Amino acid sequence: MIRNDRDTIVEGIKHLCDGIGPFQKMDSLEDYFKMQTDVYDTFGDDSFDILIDILLHPPDLGRFDPNDFEYELQEALTAVGRRNPRYALDKIDDLLGIKSIRLVLINIIGGLENEDGLFLLESLLQQSTESDPLSEDELIGLACALREIRGKKAVELLSKMKVRYRNHSSDLLEYIENGLKVR
């Protein structure tokens, strides 16, 4: 069954948060990934907009941990976004100015593993100024996203980050170095 309404999609994501519902017993990480894929497969190709709306306007989560829900929502956005990466990236581009969801969007760009996302990441780096800097978490997310996308341009951006942020935390520099090691 294809799920294209907000309430049904929210329930699917909540099921992923704690494995309740009509899912088989999970004995391994592979079982969990299979369960995720099974749920995502029920989301229609046009559900990306609904998922973005859920990100912008989170539902009442009741007993569910907001961090777990955000993680599962991010994973769902990435999975559905891979079906039409150009559309997903265009939609994300329109939303990158919203600080409260920027880190999730950076992670989705990386998860799409599409070189077209490099333009958005480069734009974020260029826009980051002393008066409106990217947070440490956003910079780490950006380094991870560049590592996931790979390619010559990603390495170039990581190299620029290494120089620009050389006086930042050792955590950030470690993520940048790890990204540069991946070819």
Name a few traits of the molecule:
0% strand, 183 residues, mainly alpha
Describe the structure.
The chain has 183 residues and is mainly α. The chain has ten helices and no strands. 30% of the residues are buried. The model has no long low-confidence stretch (mean pLDDT 90).
Distance between the termini: 40 Å
Low-confidence stretches: none
Overall radius of gyration:
17 Å
Number of helical regions = 10
Organism: Paenibacillus nicotianae
Protein name: Immunity protein 30
Short description:
The protein has 183 residues and is mainly alpha-helical. Helix content is 69%, strand content 0%. This is Immunity protein 30.
Topology:
Elements: H1 6-18, H2 29-41, H3 48-56, H4 66-81, H5 85-95, H6 99-112, H7 117-127, H8 136-149, H9 152-164, H10 170-181
Helix pairs in contact: 1-4, 3-4, 4-6, 5-6, 6-7, 6-8, 8-9, 8-10, 9-10
